[in-house]
Amino acid sequence: MAGRLLDAPVPREISDAVAEASRIKTRAIDLAAYASDASHYLMTPEAVVVAADADEVARLLAGATATRSRVTLRSGGTSLSGQAAGDGLLVDVRQRFRAIDVVDGGRRVKVQPGATVRQVNTRLAPYGYRLGPDPASEIACTIGGVVANNSSGMACGTVENTYATLESMVFVLPSGTIIDTSRADADAALVAAEPRLVDVLEQLRRRVLDNPASVELIRRQFSLKNTMGYGLNSFLDHDTPAQLLSHLIIGSEGTLAFVAEATFRTVPVSPLISTALAVFPTLTHATSALPELVASGAATLELLDAASLRVGRTLPGVPDEILGFAVADHAALLVEYRGSDPDALATQAAGGESVLAGADLHSAARFTSDPATRAKAWAFRKGLYASVAGARPTGTTALLEDVVVPVAALADTCESLQSLFDEYGYAESVIFGHAKDGNIHFMLTDRFEGDAAIGRYLGFTEDMVDLVLAAGGNLKAEHGTGRAMAPYVRRQYGDELYDVMRRLKDACDPAGIMNPGVIIDDDPNAHIRNIKLAPTIEPEADRCVECGYCEPVCPSRDLTLTPRQRIVVRRAATAARQRGDADLADELDDDYDYDGVQTCAVDGMCQTACPVLINTGALVKRLRRENAHPVTAGAWQAASAGWGATTRVGSLALSAAKRIPTPVVAAATTVGRALLGEDAVPAYTGDLPGGGPSRGRLRGSVGAGGGEPVGVYVPACVNSMFGPAGDGLGVTTAFTRLLERAGVRLVVPDEIESLCCGTPWSSKGYAAGGDLNAGRTTAAIRKASENGRLPVVVDASSCTEGFIHTLRGENIAVVDAVTFAAREILPRLETTPVVDSLVLHPTCSSVQLGLDGDVRTLAEAAAGEVTVPDAWGCCAFAGDRGMLHPELTASATRGEADEVRAMRADAHASCNRTCELGMTRATGEDYQHILELLEKASRP
Asked: What is the pTM of this model?
């Protein structure tokens, strides 16, 4: 990324293909944000286009073909071999390609490329079906990549992978031709539009079939998992043009066509599962047990070596089986049986226990069907790559390889790999993967820069290639050839089949525009070019491996930057400064203020998805602290000193605004925003409520009962600032009434008007005001709680989270009012549902605090049917962030709001007032706190 990131304009043939110029991105920050994917390559595009639909992609590709402009397609960006990175035109086919259509009662599903595997399986779950491919990155990997890489995963093998389960697709060729292979006339349409291509396909098919050596090699290599080169098994399996080409496109990594829609045949969800995590003294002991476990019918056999165990056990929530001993040469197998018949499953599990009982285990392995135990084991396994990579030394790059050998050769292969690690000085390398299929992953970490490091990598790779091919394996099993293995495709297949691949590529893409350098590259050193170097950045984010798991949960993902991109841009700016490109670094920093800082909701949801628990919001809070304007910081410090008066003024101002025509108030705030900045002055809109009541009226105690109080009630200031929706009571009044009905008494601190959880200061980066508030609030709560004897109850989930942070180290328990009501109040009440249907909006804090089960419990007491939208996500109102940047909330809630409006439910609820405001604005429906509905449902 030396110098300017874009010197030349986008060719007219391409820009004219895009309906909205705003979707063509050429700023330095946009190009830096898209330069990195999950692989160890870094390639900066010349321009980025956020494509609208298949027709627009067709025009783009036709324009690119005419101008010979290089094109790379990007959806999830979780690929590990460099196939989602390019230095030409990068086309984002995620943002506007997320449609999911469940058909035939879940037996089939039509999906666009931007939907994640998890999102598709969530939609399929009520029908009892799921996708066949089950990659570990299902939280973030999208259908575009699943098809482009012929994804498989942990259990599906070659029987339920993408190739085996994809029924039809809509694809777009580089010429702009669009073919829907589900149509009866698909063959005729393809022949009419692309006669030369169809002729070449038939010639290549005959060439392959007429060569017994080719047929034998293809059958052998594709009997294992295989994503090396093109899917030549298609020539053996299909003989009609549309089906042949569509199956060749599977696994073609964006080099032949764009897949705009894929229809999968789904597979039934196994309702019964039995799981064990077995720890062996060595990797050899673990791999030696595989043949018998495979024969026993195990659905999954996941291998984890000693280095994986050492890193994994440092993370929270890991399985108990890997704790309590010093890891030496140990290894583990995650063994799982699945089925629908209890007796059959019990028999299989007993067989597995018998095999493991005869093995030399570190400790006895026990199979369990407990969901929580299984969830811990799989969370550990699915996050393993990023967790291990995140533990690498700062400034180094993680490089993950992916090979497969016959299961009988796996033990020897693993031993030989470990010898290669030692020989080439890769001391921290790890081995893990899908042992049932003979498919293992191994990771190298180094700073791949300079003759010594590159020479070591080249030598290792050459020896590794010889090792795998000698064992009868494939150099890529499921991660795709990409750029990492492109120079070795010829070595695996030989000259004859490599030439078939070249002719296939030339026939589909005669201009060579589609992802050049991926799969087909005759440069023997192509795999060592453009290797990503990771400069050290802020400690909150430095261990990021850019896996992209955080992106689907980020509320700003379709507006500005995702958490991964925020980190990538910080690295780009740091690298620019290190090489002396101050102009570029300054430009990146200037645009980062809005894209990276102002439009981050600092909601922490990225941490819930991150395998190494990075909270990018913590990085943003640091930057806000470091760049806080002294005048604004002083104003917030003054507000902290008089917080009671500040909240009352805010409440009165909102009430006054409701009595003035909205355009008048809105115009005033617009002027203020223009003068003082959009990040300083909130925008007023008519959907905001009037102010709420003073908290001071509650001093002393609330509730009923003659006994001692059981807790300290700290009503959130946000509920005092913002009044309730419509004619509602508001959560504070509702909660006090519930306490009275249940005969439960809580005390309220005398200083309640001046108390705050601290989130307004911590989220904005105003440290002095935050410290002032923390000291005052901690002292008051310490006194009211009798030094922690009584728990503190808070009636807004984000404030509950804030108080937990503020009171950390004080030995004072903080409980959300929702959990308190579920445990202490609801059992004492008689309730009757007051609405037939209720839509719930969990909040970021309720998810992170584990409140959602209690929220649903209360909801089910108040409503006949309770639904959480499939498209649920953070609303990004984030205190006042939704008023400072309404575009952020609008973008974050778009999918959920569409789903909610279609439901036409009787009521809508959440558990945090500002989130209720955000969802009210997004949907046009009044959202209230779930305790308000419980209060109605428990009225005498």
From this structure: 0.94
Give the number of other CB atoms < 10 A from CB of residue 220. Answer: 13
Instruction: Using alpha carbons, select from 283, 286, 182 the residue that is nearest to residue 242.
Output: 182
Residue corresponding to tokens 């405001």? 917
The answer to whether residue 2 scores a pLDDT higher than 70 is no
Q: What are the start-end ranges of the E strands in 585-716?
A: 700-703, 712-714
Interhelix angle 767-784/630-641, nearest 10 degrees:
20
Distance of alpha carbon 808 from alpha carbon 730, whole angstroms:
29
| Cα–Cα separations (whole angstroms), residue 704 to 165, 495, 742, 746 | 62, 85, 8, 8
The answer, yes or no, to whether residue 702 has pLDDT greater than 80, is: yes
Distance CA 53, CA 641 (A): 53
- Residue 756 neighbours by CB distance under 10 Å: 28
CA dist., res. 36 & res. 742, Å (int): 56
CB 840 within 8 A of CB 930: yes
Rounded Cα–Cα distance for residues 771 and 640 (Å): 9
Q: Are 173 and 508 in contact (CB under 8 A)?
A: yes
Crossing angle of the two packed helices 195-209 and 489-508, in degrees rounded to 10: 150
314: DSSP letter: T
At residue 8, the pLDDT reads: 54
Strand 47-50 with 907-910, pairing: unpaired
What does the pLDDT look like over 414-427, one tens digit per residue? 999 999 999 999 98
Q: What is the pLDDT of residues 537-596, one digit of tens each?
A: 999 999 999 999 999 999 999 999 999 999 999 999 999 999 999 999 999 999 999 999
* Angstrom distances, CA of residue 389 to CA of 30, 110, 429, 546, 563: 26, 34, 10, 10, 17
Both tokens of 11, joined, read: 């060719």
Q: Which residue, 2, 182, 32, is CA-closest to 560?
A: 32
Q: How far apart are CA 434 and CA 478, in angstroms?
A: 10
- Beta bridge pairs of residue 432: 304, 441
Name the nearest CA neighbour of 732 among 742, 722, 654: 722
